[in-house]
């Protein structure tokens, strides 16, 4: 059964655009499923060809421009036909020459639409930065959003309530809010990988283990040639234990028996393979921002909890607030917020804001509290920020309180209203 992802309609809208559409994201989040379903749906209107570059014999069919055209012709492509021919290339980053082949297609065959997928932003950027400059549209595919998670579990009644909860103008929250929070708690523990969402409760840990094992084999070892796997795992485990904290590269290197430069390089690799995201500190002086240490968050809470072997309920753990912060950050990414636009703020006086959304124009300060009972002190950080930066006079506090309210120039939001934050 195919559960339609929210990004599916976006991909369909790319068909008439001559640029290549590049899907990038972690392994096993559904990029292949998306392309196979798109291939199946489009065959009623277009001639299509799907090539899996994980299989070398498939690569041989397109390992030169001439071979590709021959392969396309054998599958119904006609050079002088204005009708679109759709070409799907799965895991194209495995071979650096494929990007040049895509370049030739985009430049010389406007009647061929290319969809290509890859699992490493680092590898893709290295391979396509120059050859596909101005010839590509990049679409990020992440693990399931919370709404998609509900869809995969066929919780249609809750999806309807979720949409009502997202209406910031509504005077009352929906009656099924307790059920929404019940599902959210599971999402905070096991995350949003599709196979995990579809697995029975007693199988979820095993599925997460297989996801990580494949990540190590395919990304860290085979492709990125990391030779110190044991050290890399120690580094990942330390980051997982310090989820939501600023990275101390010296400490990280000591724990993983790596020098500071190597540990920084490994962290960058983890970011570019979508295991983690890094939040830079926000400053009005951009040069100063570059000198400060980022915070680390795992994009998927299930993967993070696998590393520390903690799948306890949120009620009995001491890191629930960080899981909730990670949820908010990941949801913003899944809703299309660029990672570079999500930051945090800390003043010289140690005043702090969990998130700052900044697209170069609008700025939204956000506090995140995983609790029901909000106190005046919970607004202190937001008020301090707006006092220091008078141009930004409205803040947001995300919490689990079940009644909407607005305090002065601060809007309180439930975790189901995050669409209202997107810039």
TrEMBL record:
Keywords: ATP-binding, Nucleotide-binding. GO terms for molecular function: ATP binding. Residues 17-144 form the AAA+ ATPase domain. InterPro entries: AAA+_ATPase (IPR003593), AAA_14 (IPR041682), DUF4143 (IPR025420), P-loop_NTPase (IPR027417). The keyword Oxidoreductase does not apply. SMART domains: AAA. Pfam families: AAA_14, DUF4143. The keyword Nucleotide-binding applies. This is ATP-binding protein. It comes from Flexistipes sinusarabici.
């Amino acid at each position: 059964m195919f559960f339609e992802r929210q990004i599916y309609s976006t991909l369909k809208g790319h068909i008439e655009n001559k640029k290549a559409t590049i899907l990038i994201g972690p392994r096993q989040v559904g990029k292949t499923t998306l392309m196979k379903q798109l291939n199946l749906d489009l065959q009623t209107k277009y001639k299509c060809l799907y090539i899996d570059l994980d299989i070398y014999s498939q690569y041989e069919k397109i390992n030169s421009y001439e071979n590709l055209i021959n392969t396309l012709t054998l599958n119904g492509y006609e050079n002088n036909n204005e009708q679109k021919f759709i070409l799907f290339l799965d895991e194209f980053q495995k071979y650096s020459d494929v990007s040049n082949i895509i370049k030739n297609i985009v430049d010389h065959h406007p009647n061929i639409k290319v969809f290509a997928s890859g699992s490493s932003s680092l590898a893709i950027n290295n391979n396509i930065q120059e050859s596909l400059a101005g010839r590509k549209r990049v679409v990020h595919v992440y693990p399931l959003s919370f709404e998609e998670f509900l869809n995969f579990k066929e919780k249609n009644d809750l999806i309807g309530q979720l949409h009502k909860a997202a209406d910031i103008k509504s005077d009352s929250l929906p009656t099924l809010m307790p059920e929404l929070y019940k599902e959210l708690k599971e999402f905070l523990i096991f995350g949003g990988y599709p196979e995990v969402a579809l697995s029975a409760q007693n199988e979820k840990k095993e599925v997460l283990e297989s996801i990580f094992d494949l990540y190590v084999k395919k990304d860290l070892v085979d492709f990125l040639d990391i030779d110190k796997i044991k050290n890399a795992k120690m580094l990942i485990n330390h980051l997982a234990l310090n989820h939501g904290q600023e990275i101390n590269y010296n400490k990280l290197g000591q724990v993983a028996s790596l020098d500071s430069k190597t540990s920084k390089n490994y962290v960058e690799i983890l970011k570019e393979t979508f295991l983690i995201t890094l939040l830079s500190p926000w400053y009005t002086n951009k040069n100063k921002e570059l000198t400060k240490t980022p915070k680390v968050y795992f994009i998927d809470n299930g993967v993070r909890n696998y590393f520390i072997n903690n799948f306890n309920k949120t009620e009995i753990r001491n890191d629930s607030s960080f899981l909730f912060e990670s949820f908010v950050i990941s949801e913003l990414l899944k809703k299309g917020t660029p990672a570079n636009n999500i930051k945090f703020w800390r003043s010289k006086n140690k005043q702090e804001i969990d998130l700052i959304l900044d697209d170069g124009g609008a700025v939204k300060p956000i506090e995140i509290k995983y609790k029901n009972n909000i106190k005046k002190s919970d607004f202190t950080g937001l008020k301090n920020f707006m006092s220091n930066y008078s141009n930004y006079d409205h803040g947001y506090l995300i919490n689990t309180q079940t009644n909407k309210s607005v305090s002065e120039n601060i809007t309180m939001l439930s975790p189901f209203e995050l669409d209202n934050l997107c810039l």
